[in-house]
Design brief:
It contains 22 helices and 11 strands. By secondary structure, it is α/β, with parallel strands linked by helices. Among the domains are: 58 residues, no CATH class; 32 residues, no CATH class; 217 residues. A 9-stranded mixed beta sheet has the order 4-3-7-2-8-1-9-10-11, sandwiched between helices. The protein has a two-stranded antiparallel sheet with strand order 5-6. Helix 12 runs antiparallel to helix 13 and helix 19 runs antiparallel to helix 21. The radius of gyration is 32 Å and the shape is elongated. It starts with 8 loop residues before the first helix and ends with a helix.
Length: 641
């Protein structure tokens, strides 16, 4: 690439983000290693840091590009990500190019190359996720990642089509709308053209993809509307969505249908609109201000039609941007407008994502510092108490040591008796937690959805689905509401028990934080509402296709199961963290009592001198100070980086 042409902003941002993530991962790992060597009790701290390590190590970023056919979406992806190859990588040009949804990623654990799922699998009820675990069904092509021309040639399979009778095409989900039928182009045999493939997985090594980036390319209303997983799962879960329109066509009916049905409902700050092919407005007979005014009018009109702020609509020329980057033409690249779109994508996909992960790491590290500092303060208090106790023995006779031994033995017996309360608390907590596990068990949660699948699978006419889903959704939501009530009961029970333990044994166990499921409930509501609307109204005809209905319901079941499993993990982690506080202080108290008894016993048996033990405790107190300073330094370095 010409050095005078600015490097792709998003590309640079992705590398910066990947570098930050790798450094943050190493810093958290280094902190955990230091803590493991410190001898501190890490029952609470270890899981907190391990979760952050897993999150940083497995973070993935998905950018979804959605458009009707012939909007220049593939060219836009080429311009943003693959201009360094010196040519187009994804097929792009006049007419329809990429004919099926495509996921572009790099995963060495999966087969490298291009995998294509036959369109005929739409006749069966398995979801895309289920098909992904059946590699024998996919057609596989090798991808020569080091040969740009060979790579581009292999990816032309994304444009493969076939001709089939109209009835067969309709069985596969095509040509149901009146407008599609009006524009139907059949050949002499009465056959029509449809895509050969249903879905594509492109897995190859690439510097950007290796950083955890994946690209979702969804072409055309039919591809989006016929695949419930795309509409209701993959697109909404993307870190950023780019909806591509053509400046030469404006917002067409099918564009608006894609937007209203599949994007607007989940549209947020991470949804951007690329008004592509803006070079069609570069009229050589107009002045630069006139051209700018024409482009601005298109932007304002598009924003008004889509009910978006104008600053989220970006006029671009993907073709000119790709050409500029390949030829090293800086002025043309600037005129293409791609920089503004890349800046917005960089903020949505990199800067905001980094801020989110950084905040989570800081919160976890803050909790670790607070918990371990409290642990060290407790150790310091215990050690200082022992030191004062032993220093009080100086100059005293042996009977005093015997009396102290008797008093300490009684204290330990009293403590051991009190531990029966801790065991009882654990038993009650486990029973209450088990009730929550039963409430969240997949078999129980998904029972009504599975029954609905069975009824719909055997019904000739699919009616009443919306009402059934509304009822099932209300029942499942009540489970979440009831679970939140039960969580609060557990919290209050633990808080009362901790208060008693603090009073009786001098512990410093803090009451568990309040755990709310409101965020998860909002996500659950969005999912259920989206599926309920999808399986009614305008999709009623699709609903009569048995495979489509079952596929959609199974996708919903999968989403619901994931949400409830995530909720249960959050609850179990919350409960484990709360109980770990008490367990840690119980272990530390036992250790201190046993150490004090052993010390006094050795002094009584004249196996150890009082002076030696006092010296040992003074060193222990100094070591606690060293550990506290070391912990603060480790945390400070991690947070400051």
């Amino acid at each position: 690439m010409n050095p005078h042409v600015e490097a792709p902003i998003l590309t640079a941002g992705l590398f910066d983000y990947a570098e930050w993530r790798a450094e943050a991962l190493q810093r958290v790992k280094a902190l955990l290693t230091w803590l493991e060597e410190s001898g501190l009790d890490l029952e609470q701290a270890r899981p907190l840091l391990q979760r952050q390590i897993h999150r940083l190590d497995n973070d993935r970023m998905t950018l979804a590009f959605v458009a009707e056919f012939s909007r220049g979406k593939s060219e836009l992806i080429n311009a943003i990500f693959f201009s360094g190859h010196g040519q187009r990588i994804l097929p792009a040009g006049a007419g329809r190019t990429t004919m099926c949804p495509m996921e572009l990623f790099s995963d060495p654990a999966q087969p490298r190359g291009l995998r294509l799922l036959p369109i005929e699998t739409r006749l069966q009820s398995q979801t895309l996720a289920q098909w992904k675990s059946s590699p024998q069904v996919w057609t596989h092509f090798e991808l020569p990642s080091q040969d740009a021309q060979g790579l581009a040639q292999a990816l032309t399979h994304l444009s493969d089509t076939q001709r089939v009778p109209l009835e067969r095409a309709q069985d596969l989900g095509f040509f149901h709308d009146a407008e599609d039928l009006a524009q139907l182009n059949t050949d002499a045999q009465g056959e029509v053209e449809i895509p050969l493939w249903r879905h594509a997985l492109v897995n190859f090594a690439h510097p950007l993809l290796d950083q955890g980036l994946s690209i979702l390319d969804t072409p055309g209303l039919n591809a989006v509307g016929a695949e419930p997983e795309l509409t209701l799962s993959l697109i909404p879960s993307a870190n950023a969505v780019v909806f591509v329109l053509g400046a030469d066509t404006g917002v067409t009916r099918s564009d608006l249908e894609i937007w209203n049905r599949h994007i607007a409902t989940t549209s947020g700050a991470q949804t951007l609109v690329a008004l592509n092919k803006v070079d069609a407005l570069w009229d050589p007979l107009l002045t630069a201000p006139q051209i700018a005014a024409s482009i601005d009018h298109q932007v304002q009109t598009t924003a008004q039609t889509l009910r978006l702020p104008p600053e989220r609509v970006f006029p671009v020329s993907a073709h000119k941007a790709l050409l500029a980057r390949i030829q090293g033409d800086g002025p043309l690249l600037a005129r293409s407008g791609l920089g503004a779109l890349e800046n917005a994508l960089n903020r949505a996909a990199n800067i905001d994502r980094r801020s989110l992960l950084d905040g989570a790491v800081r919160d976890a590290v803050g909790q670790v510092q607070s918990e371990l500092s409290q642990q060290l303060r407790k150790q310091l208090h215990e050690a200082q108490g022992q030191l004062d106790e032993l220093q009080g023995l100086r100059g005293k006779n042996a009977n005093m040591v015997v009396l102290m031994l008797q008093r300490l033995a009684a204290e330990r017996n009293e403590f051991d008796a009190g531990m029966a309360q801790v065991l009882a608390l654990r038993a009650v907590n486990n029973r209450m937690l088990e009730q929550l596990r039963e409430r969240f068990a997949a078999k129980s949660v998904l029972h009504d959805l599975e029954q609905l699948e069975l009824r719909m699978g055997g019904a000739l006419l699919k009616v009443g689905v919306k009402g059934e889903l509304a009822r099932i959704g209300a029942d499942l939501r009540k489970r979440l509401v009831d679970a939140e009530t039960q969580i609060e009961e557990i919290r209050q029970m633990l808080a009362a028990a901790f208060t008693r333990a603090n009073s009786e044994f001098g512990f410093t166990v803090t009451a568990p934080r309040v755990l709310r499921l409101s965020g998860l409930m909002q996500e659950f509501d969005r999912v259920v509402n989206a599926y309920t609307e999808h399986l009614s109204g305008v999709n009623w005809l699709k609903l009569q296709n048995n495979a489509y209905t079952l596929r959609t319901l199974r996708t919903l079941s999968s989403r619901v199961r994931d949400l409830f499993e995530r909720a249960l993990r959050d609850i179990e982690n919350w409960d484990r963290s709360a109980i770990a506080q008490l367990d840690s202080q119980v272990r530390e108290r036992k250790k201190q009592l046993n150490r004090r008894l052993a010390t006094l016993q050795r002094i009584e048996d004249t196996k150890d001198s009082l002076h030696d033990r006092i010296d040992e405790l003074q060193k222990q107190i100094a070591q606690i100070d060293v550990l506290q300073s070391g912990l603060n330094d480790q945390i400070r370095r991690l947070i400051a980086a």
